Every structure is written in structure tokens, then in C-alpha cells.
Amino acid sequence: MTKVLQNVQMLNEQGELQTVNIAMAEGKITAIGQNIDVADAEIIEGNGLVIAPGFVDVHTHLREPGFEHKETIATGSASAAKGGFTTICAMPNTKPVPDSVENMQLINGLIKESAVIRVLPYGSLTRDISGEVRTNIEELKAHGAVAFSDDGVGIQLASTMYEQMKDAAQHDVVVVAHCEDNSLIYDGVMHEGKRNQELGLPGIPSICESVQIARDVLLAEAAGARYHVCHVSTKESVRAVRDAKAAGIRVTAEVCPHHLLLEEMDIPSDDANWKMNPPLRGADDKDSLHAAMMDGTIDCIATDHAPHTVEEKCCGMVGAPFGIVGFETAFPLLYTQFVETGKWTLKQLIDWMSVKAAQIFDLPYGTLEVGASADMILIDLNKEQTIDAEGFVSKGRNTPFNGWVAKGWPVLTIFEGNIVYQEAE
């Protein structure tokens, strides 16, 4: 049956809002225009709200299989739908790891059974994400791996990364890297700067991240590989990516909302809800990330949604795992802090969270056009509310943004023509 989403405000190429109706059938957008007349169509009233393509998140952690006490595919995908995401890429740090055809088939089955939106699994670069024995990229790609990563740990051996990059180049898939030199972590739990000294906590130096990016971009050049850098957080990392792009190396990069919004001096105390990896860096690093967004060095925004239990996060930073949740707060936080203040346009933010993210992996999502998948969200730009972690759909409550006031909330999410989230009346 055809459905028509009527009376919505859609951005044109110039970033201007115009009133349109959108028709959809069999999971696809069939028409966009001011006058759509479809007999017997089901009408969804848009009430003049802003319509955007469903967001695409290329860096998420759903925890299932193996860590269902933290999150499941069902709760994680529902949380993403509430935040306006209709396509998410799930990292491979599960148990078992998607490092074989058997394990990849297991995860695909769980996704088919439980996900309410599109979940695309990563394959791991090495067996059990140990950084040692290489996986079979060709086989895992054939069974649905969207890209390849050992996210959560950096691959320490340059030879392992180089050989996998060569295989990835042969099969035209992207190598995605959490960049971290283990010899430079020094058991740190937050950024090595001023605030860690004030709190008496061990620090993680910036060089830990940037030196591995510098290594990897040269390996990617030699291998002819497409290389994507996870959660860039330092000014040195930005410089390495910018220089690599200028040299013609096929590198892309993402940034997380928390690294754009916060820096080390914002950390109020030894509170593990502020512990993430990479950590919140210095104010100059944050400024460098903003500049990199504007000049194209950084390509997209990704949440690195990483849920943990309250019990795991209730102790201090030293004993707690790294990571915070991000699906349900990403857009309103960024809209409030950057679009409302005039630093970004609405079109820039939506593009960074949708089409630009999809383009990295050649995904046909993140756009509003006839023939595209009917994945879209309605956003109430005037809706203002206080973030309440207890109201999250995600099992995770671990966020430093609890109690923040933000505007611009997704109120309706449509995936392949079907409503998968709707704000309660």
C-alpha cells in the first residue's frame, strides 16, 4: 500500500526549507512534490516538521552476541531508531567475533531476528580481534561484512595491517581502524594533560593515537587501500589525515559528538561516565576537530555508541570500562550547540550524519530522492527537553550529558516505509 507523508519541510540543495509531500511504496520513495495525489494512500501527517534522511552511523557497538547484559541488537537498534538512525554499522567486538563464516552467519541471523532498522555488521581484521592471525576478507565480505575493523584495539603489527590492507584493496572494501599504540597507553584512563594531574589519574598521551594514524596512512598508500580512521580526537591526528588526503591517499575520517562538544577540563570528577576511548582531549584539540569538519579533513560524524551497565560504570575511572552511549542524544546536542548558534548550517549537520557517512562505504542510503530506500525522520527543531538517561531505550545509561537541555529532537522514524519509532503523544 502507498503511504504519503504530507506537509513536511525538506532541505533543498541550497539548504533552504520547502514544503513537500513524500510518497512511498514497497520500501522505496516513489514521489516527492507539493502535489501528490495517490488514491487510497495511507496518510502520515508531518505537521510542518523538518524531514531528513535516516541517519547513518558507521561506528556502533550493539554488544550481542556475548554481552547482552550491556545491550542487545533489539535494544540497540530501537535506541538508534529513537535517535533518528536507520542504518548502523556494528563493530565486531562481540563474543564470538565475526571472524569466520560461521560466526558471521550467526550474527546475521541475530540481526534478522531482532533489528528494527538496518544493521550492517563489520568483519574483524584478525581472529578474535587479537591483532595476530588474519581473517579471510573475501569470505567475510561474501557473507555480509560491510567493512573490516578490529575496533577497540589498534593493530600493533604493521605487517598484519599491511597484508590485510592489500587483501582489502583487492576486494574493494574499507579498512577501518581504532588507532592506538599500546606501548604509549601507559595504563591511562583519561587524556594526559592538566585535568588528569588535578584528579590524580593516569593519562593517555595524544601521540598514542596519532603515531598509528601516521603509520597506517603510509601503509594504505603502499597497499592501495581505502582506509577510514575511527573517532579522531587530537590535533596531531587531524594533521596526519589532512596531509594524507593532500598526498592523494584514500583516507577518510570520522569524529564523535562528545569530542566536538567536550574537552578535558569539562570532566567534573573521577566519574566513569566521562571515560571514553579516545578520551576527551585538550581545548586546542577540540578546536582542531572543528576546523577539520569545515575544511573536509573529517568526513562524517559517528556516535561510537558504547553501552555498559550501571554497575560497571559506578566506580571510578581506573576500574571502569571505556565508552559512552550516543544514539539518542547525538542530533539534538549537535543541533543545539552548533546549528542554533550559527556555527553550522542544518544542511551541514544532516549531511555529516547521513549521506556523507554512507558514501564512505558506498552505501545507497542517507538520501531523500525518488527510488531511494524510504528511510527518513521527522525532526521537531523547536522541541526542547532535558536529557534524562533513565528514559533511554538503550540499556546503557552511561553518558556525560545527563541533565543537559537540548533542542531539535527526532519525533518519528520511518525505515523502509514503516514507522519504527514515534514519540508518545
UniProtKB/TrEMBL annotation:
<comment type="function">
    <text>Catalyzes the reversible cyclization of carbamoyl aspartate to dihydroorotate.</text>
</comment>
<keyword id="KW-0665">Pyrimidine biosynthesis</keyword>
<feature type="binding site">
    <location>
        <position position="277"/>
    </location>
    <ligand>
        <name>substrate</name>
    </ligand>
</feature>
<dbReference type="GO" id="GO:0005737">
    <property type="term" value="C:cytoplasm"/>
</dbReference>
<dbReference type="InterPro" id="IPR032466">
    <property type="entry name" value="Metal_Hydrolase"/>
</dbReference>
<feature type="domain" description="Dihydroorotase catalytic">
    <location>
        <begin position="49"/>
        <end position="237"/>
    </location>
</feature>
<comment type="similarity">
    <text>Belongs to the metallo-dependent hydrolases superfamily. DHOase family. Class I DHOase subfamily.</text>
</comment>
<feature type="binding site">
    <location>
        <begin position="61"/>
        <end position="63"/>
    </location>
    <ligand>
        <name>substrate</name>
    </ligand>
</feature>
<dbReference type="InterPro" id="IPR002195">
    <property type="entry name" value="Dihydroorotase_CS"/>
</dbReference>
<dbReference type="GO" id="GO:0004038">
    <property type="term" value="F:allantoinase activity"/>
</dbReference>
<keyword id="KW-0479">Metal-binding</keyword>
<feature type="binding site">
    <location>
        <position position="61"/>
    </location>
    <ligand>
        <name>Zn(2+) 1</name>
    </ligand>
</feature>
<dbReference type="GO" id="GO:0044205">
    <property type="term" value="P:'de novo' UMP biosynthetic process"/>
</dbReference>
<feature type="binding site">
    <location>
        <position position="178"/>
    </location>
    <ligand>
        <name>Zn(2+) 2</name>
    </ligand>
</feature>
<keyword id="KW-0378">Hydrolase</keyword>
<dbReference type="GO" id="GO:0006145">
    <property type="term" value="P:purine nucleobase catabolic process"/>
</dbReference>
<dbReference type="InterPro" id="IPR004722">
    <property type="entry name" value="DHOase"/>
</dbReference>
<feature type="binding site">
    <location>
        <position position="59"/>
    </location>
    <ligand>
        <name>Zn(2+) 1</name>
    </ligand>
</feature>
<feature type="active site">
    <location>
        <position position="304"/>
    </location>
</feature>
<dbReference type="InterPro" id="IPR050138">
    <property type="entry name" value="DHOase/Allantoinase_Hydrolase"/>
</dbReference>
<feature type="binding site">
    <location>
        <position position="304"/>
    </location>
    <ligand>
        <name>Zn(2+) 1</name>
    </ligand>
</feature>
<feature type="binding site">
    <location>
        <position position="93"/>
    </location>
    <ligand>
        <name>substrate</name>
    </ligand>
</feature>
<feature type="binding site">
    <location>
        <begin position="322"/>
        <end position="323"/>
    </location>
    <ligand>
        <name>substrate</name>
    </ligand>
</feature>
<feature type="binding site">
    <location>
        <position position="151"/>
    </location>
    <ligand>
        <name>Zn(2+) 1</name>
    </ligand>
</feature>
<dbReference type="InterPro" id="IPR011059">
    <property type="entry name" value="Metal-dep_hydrolase_composite"/>
</dbReference>
<feature type="binding site">
    <location>
        <position position="231"/>
    </location>
    <ligand>
        <name>Zn(2+) 2</name>
    </ligand>
</feature>
<dbReference type="InterPro" id="IPR024403">
    <property type="entry name" value="DHOase_cat"/>
</dbReference>
<comment type="pathway">
    <text>Pyrimidine metabolism; UMP biosynthesis via de novo pathway; (S)-dihydroorotate from bicarbonate: step 3/3.</text>
</comment>
<protein>
    <recommendedName>
        <fullName>Dihydroorotase</fullName>
        <ecNumber>3.5.2.3</ecNumber>
    </recommendedName>
</protein>
<dbReference type="Pfam" id="PF12890">
    <property type="entry name" value="DHOase"/>
</dbReference>
<feature type="binding site">
    <location>
        <position position="151"/>
    </location>
    <ligand>
        <name>Zn(2+) 2</name>
    </ligand>
</feature>
<dbReference type="GO" id="GO:0008270">
    <property type="term" value="F:zinc ion binding"/>
</dbReference>
<keyword id="KW-0862">Zinc</keyword>
<feature type="binding site">
    <location>
        <position position="308"/>
    </location>
    <ligand>
        <name>substrate</name>
    </ligand>
</feature>
<dbReference type="GO" id="GO:0004151">
    <property type="term" value="F:dihydroorotase activity"/>
</dbReference>
